[in-house]
Amino acid sequence: MDPRIREHARIVVDHCLDVQPGDRVLVDAKPAVEEFVVALYEELGKRDAIPMRIGASPRASRAYLREFDPEAAALKDQKLAALEAADKLVMAWGMENTRETVDVADEVSNALGEANQQIMEAHLDMDWVGTMHPMPGNAQAAEMSTDAYEAFVYDAIEKDWDEQRRFQQQLVDILDPADEVRIVSGETTDIRMSVGGMDAGNDYAKRNLPGGEAYTVPVPDSVEGEVLFDLPVVTRGEELADVWLRFESGEVVEFEADSGEGTLESILNRDQGSRRLGELGIGMNRDIDQLTNHMLFDEKMGDTVHLALGRCLDEVVPEGMTGNESSLHVDLLVDMSEDSFIEVDGEVVQRNGVFRFEEGFDH
Amino acid sequence: MDPRIREHARIVVDHCLDVQPGDRVLVDAKPAVEEFVVALYEELGKRDAIPMRIGASPRASRAYLREFDPEAAALKDQKLAALEAADKLVMAWGMENTRETVDVADEVSNALGEANQQIMEAHLDMDWVGTMHPMPGNAQAAEMSTDAYEAFVYDAIEKDWDEQRRFQQQLVDILDPADEVRIVSGETTDIRMSVGGMDAGNDYAKRNLPGGEAYTVPVPDSVEGEVLFDLPVVTRGEELADVWLRFESGEVVEFEADSGEGTLESILNRDQGSRRLGELGIGMNRDIDQLTNHMLFDEKMGDTVHLALGRCLDEVVPEGMTGNESSLHVDLLVDMSEDSFIEVDGEVVQRNGVFRFEEGFDH
Questions:
Q1: Backbone angles phi, psi at A358, to 5 degrees
Q2: Which of B22, B64, B66 sits opposite A51 (nearest CB)?
Q3: What is the pLDDT of residue A238?
């Protein structure tokens, strides 16, 4: 076995989840990521944990979804029960074909998604981590060879997470007490929002592996201005490119997109919270130096900012504060590497991708 | 996809489990049997059931088991919870390598087996079926080409189960009210037992696919005589060949085996019930015409009888009767095709493999 797979499994069990003897662990992994599961089971054995594997293949899901009547959508009780009885959850992504369910009607996926909201909440209530076992389908989606993609993934994952945590904490310490954040890029993006009273979080790979961002939550009504998301993202199997949004009192009042405008419109109209922001994140994992069309990596890319339409990240919304509510969470990305800056309470904290606390910062 | 796989899935969902809309179904299937799971998910979609897939690969299990400290063995709570929340269970066997866990210490498997007795009981309490997706490893264990093995498996599985049920019912109707059964084969087997008061069961593929046997449970103390199990079986990865047992008052008092005598001895000494019989089964699936080293098929082979050491089949033990108790259930096989007969209450019901209710029966 590729030693990088073993090291990946060790980081998951050790750093991300700190697995203890007797921990009941769910391993949610498609059949295709078998090699990673073997390595993970070996690590779980060393720690005397009690694992159980779950997860159907995209091919099986597609076959099911194409026959299923969305009116029969119901809660997957047996999965909820397994989650509730488990202590920790590993989700291992990785696909042979990222477009396997492209010919499933949205209606069916949406109906099952809604019927299973409780499962999503149970996920978020437990210790979990999501990670990527690099597969040819993901490499293809990233427009990379499988070999180069593997190198990319392991570079992003297998790093000194304590050092990364300390690096990111410098920005978290700025964002945490902040009131106003302003993001400016070229002529096309100038957006302000209040984060006053919100906490800031340090993603050093406890829930996502790789991690690599500092993040907080905007006060829902406070967002004003316009933003061009000049890095493409794939959502629901469709690319959204050059999405442009204008906000007033926190809400999107105007929008455009170079591609995927129909999908964008259906996202914005999904529910009451889908026109407001639930997250401001700043990518800080410099080993992620290119887009791969997978948000696990793309949102942590160095020199980027992401804003998410929809559901807020509850863990940085303190008692007494309110973040945005929605059934969606769609991240959109701005390139901050050139002609760009982030201002916090009137002071520039990043210019052209370089932070104030780094060498080469241009005051 | 091979149309036989779809038909196999249809039989499981339709005949074996009679899946209804909204049924919560667990699909316990190793990654290697992916093709069958795709077909099964399609059928479950047609019936608007709610499936969840579970099951780790033998490679992952081995990696885990070799590192796990047996003293840490504990109940897999998350699996028990999933089983209890489900209505129906499909177990799909099929291996790339049937010897994948041969280098795991018995001690570890046994410790986990004992810690998970409750899961075994939960299995038996629900609607379940076990079946085989034909894989190269199973073909190899059967000493067959993969192609020939596939043909064999689908012949045994894809048949008119109503017709098979009616065929078997003729024997069930004889066994059900019977008192004494005697089995004689050559000079080496002459064994008697009471089945008085026990029910008889008709295995027409509700819990095993293929099915194909009539079965009952001996009164534990009643077994007398000797039996040579002249067909080999594989148990715990070891072949038991020409096992010979002598019973007195229901208990094995003398034993021998041409191969696997050590394993046989450890089976007999496992617990209080492991020297007594828990099952008398008569194989009636004539499409199973050769041994394959897998009990799912071997015990249903035409012209055979099997007796099981250990745990009885509770479903044919009526209120007020007592079958044998044990943590084991080990089936052993006698060839009845030549120089053999089965007598029920003094009357021959099968001679040289031909039943009394069939053409060619030699009174």
A1: -115, 160
A2: B64
A3: 83
Question: Which of B79, B88, B127 to probe by mutation at the A interface, max A CB count within 10 Å?
Answer: B79
Question: How far, in Å, CA of A88 to CA of A271, rounded?
Answer: 31
Sign of CA dihedral A318, A324, A329, A331: negative
Task: Provide the 10 A C-beta neighbour count for residue B320.
Answer: 6
Indicate if the alpha-carbon torsion angle A133, A137, A138, A140 is positive or negative: positive
Q: Where are the beta strands (DSSP E) in chain A?
A: 24-29, 50-54, 88-93, 127-132, 180-185, 189-194, 200-203, 208-209, 213-216, 224-229, 233-235, 238-240, 243-248, 251-256, 277-283, 304-310, 329-335, 340-344, 347-351, 354-355
Phi and psi at A229, nearest 5°, equal -85, 95
Element (H, E) at B27: strand B24-29
Please report which residue ranges of chain B form alpha helices under DSSP H.
Answer: 3-11, 34-46, 58-67, 77-85, 106-115, 117-125, 136-141, 146-157, 161-175, 261-268, 295-298
Q: Tokens 């981590």, residue?
A: A129
Closest by CA to A82, choosing from B77, B60, B122, is: B77
Put simply, the answer to whether B64 touches A42 (Cβ < 8 Å) is: yes
pLDDT of residue B33: 97
Q: What is the DSSP letter of B285?
A: B
Q: Indicate the burial class of A307 (C-beta count within 10 angstroms; 0-12, 13-18, 19 or more).
A: buried
pLDDT at A42: 98
Inter-chain touch A74–B38, beta carbons under 8 Å: no
CB < 8 Å to A44, chain B: 64
Q: What is the pLDDT of residue A236?
A: 75
Chain B residue with minimum CA distance to A25: B78
- B209: β partners: B131
Average of per-residue pLDDT across A10-26: 98
Which chain A residues contact residue B123 at CB under 8 A? none
Q: Is the pLDDT of residue A99 over 80?
A: yes
Q: Which amino acid is at B253?
A: V
- Tens digit of pLDDT for each residue in A130-156? 999 999 999 999 999 999 999 999 999
The lowest-confidence range among A234-238, A335-339, B27-31 is A234-238
CA distance B115 to A92: 28
Going along chain B from its start, the domains and CATH numbers come out as 3-157 (3.40.1830.10), 161-355 (no CATH)
**CB contacts, 8 Å: B42 with chain A:** 63-64, 66-67
Residue carrying structure tokens 């990527």? A132
Yes or no, beta carbons of A82 and B81 under 8 Å apart: yes
Tell if the CB–CB gap between B34 and A59 is shorter than 8 Å: yes
Does the pLDDT at position B363 exceed 90?
A: no
Structure confidence at residue B235 (pLDDT):
84
To the nearest whole Å, the CA of A278 is away from the closest chain B CA by: 31
Which positions in chain A touch B76 (Cβ < 8 Å)? 24, 50, 52
Average of per-residue pLDDT across A99-110: 91
CB contact under 8 A, A41 and B50: no
Reduce the DSSP state of residue A211 to 3 states and report it: coil
Contact A158/A4 with Cβ under 8 angstroms? yes
Residue A48 has pLDDT above 80, yes or no: yes
Query: Do residues B340 and B230 lie in contact, with contact meaning Cβ atoms separated by under 8 Å?
Result: no
Q: State the pLDDT confidence band at B46, using cuts at 50, 70 and 90.
A: very high
Q: How sure is the predictor about A363, in pLDDT bands with cuts at 50, 70 and 90?
A: confident
Question: Rounded to a whole number, what is the distance in Å from the CA of A150 to chain B's nearest CA?
Answer: 21
Reported ipTM: the value is 0.91
